Amino acid sequence: MRLMLWIIAGLTALYCGYWALAARTLRTEAEATLAAMRAEGRADAAAIEVGGFPARFDVTLTAPQAASPDGRIRWSADALRLYALSYRPQHVIAIFPPEQRVAIGGETVTVTSAELSASAVFGLAPELPLDRSQAVGTEFSLVSDAGWALAADVLRAAIRKGEAAAAHDIGIELAGITLSGVPARIVTAGEVLPARGERFYLDATVTLDRPLDRVAAVEGVQLRAVDIRSLALDWGPAGMSGRGAVALDDVGVPEGRIELSFRNWRAVLRLATALGLVRAETAPTVERALEGLATLGGNAEVLMLPLVFAGGRASLGPVPLGPAPRL
Question: How far is CA 128 from CA 90, 120, 123, 194, in A?
């Protein structure tokens, strides 16, 4: 019995030593990384706290800030909490605060949620390659100081390592969607679509210029290609689905084709006209042309059109949309 007590005491002492050493190393590495990124203007935090003994490693960042390598996107929050089990430190759980802020250029978007958490599993290599990650949020909303807002009852997002080294499978789903702001006078008035949409869904593979790991987190990544397996938007009587592939050049200009199918496409056209995407004086001509295309497809209420990116321009079927966006 005495021997067992000595063995238990010895194992307990070893574990306590392991936790203390690992916690000290974690704090030192976090502070060194933060100092390096602070010097580059990439990140900052008012304080870093490490706790969670004995079963976890808990890291709390007070007033964290982060920026993309080019400085165009900046994120900040009052706090960020990270957790990892002491026997599985490569599995990290993040708990986000009820309010976050994202600045994109001259626009600031406030992100709020009742609950928002994410988890990520990393490989054991020194580069810490991302194996998979997922996020779930409820009562999720984006409110821009430019006047628009997007809200969803539920947000689900996931990413996992694909077959190729720099490829990643992603999935995004929003349920119970509402819009306000710029299109509010159109959408909420019920002239075109109801104020609330049912679901947005995306299942795709994105190819980056490098795998997602600790190096990419510091130096940034560039999108090289998107292969959309399934894209869907259900909004009242109207809906959209699609699939296709797009490749991006070195400056982010897309080249490719996405096949889209629109249900109750006339409502979508009226909305696009009200938003200025289609000129009012040409809308009747566009509608007649699209009606002919829908009839050729066998169902006058369902319109199938390709979204084409070619030569730096974008077009939706026969309708030119102008210069292709840089992604």
Answer: 8, 11, 5, 45
Per DSSP, the three-state class of 125 is: coil
Question: Hey, is 271 helix, strand or coil?
Answer: helix
Kindly state the helix (H) or strand (E) to which residue 223 belongs, with its residue range. Answer: strand 223-235
Q: Do 168 and 162 contact (CB within 8 A), yes or no?
A: yes
Judged by DSSP in three states, 123 sits in coil
Distance of alpha carbon 151 from alpha carbon 207, whole angstroms: 28
- Alpha carbons 26 and 48: distance in angstroms, whole number: 11
**H/E element holding 213?**
none
Q: Measured between alpha carbons, how far is residue 130 from residues 102, 144, 242, 248 in Å?
A: 23, 31, 28, 23
Residue corresponding to tokens 């009742």: 114
CA 137 to CA 96: how far, in whole Å? 10
Locate tokens 């194992």: which residue?
A: 11
Give the three-state DSSP class for 323. Answer: strand
**pLDDT, tens digit, 9 for 90 and up, residues 103-153:** 998 899 999 999 999 999 999 888 889 999 999 999 999 999 988 889 999
Report the C-alpha gap between 111 and 85 in whole angstroms. Answer: 28
What residue type is 211 in one-letter code?
P
212 burial (CB, 10 Å; 0-12 / 13-18 / 19+) is buried
Residue type for 184, please?
A
pTM above 0.90, yes or no: no
Output the six-digit token pair for 268. 């979508």
Q: What is the pLDDT of residues 220-248, one digit of tens each?
A: 788 999 999 999 999 888 889 999 999 99
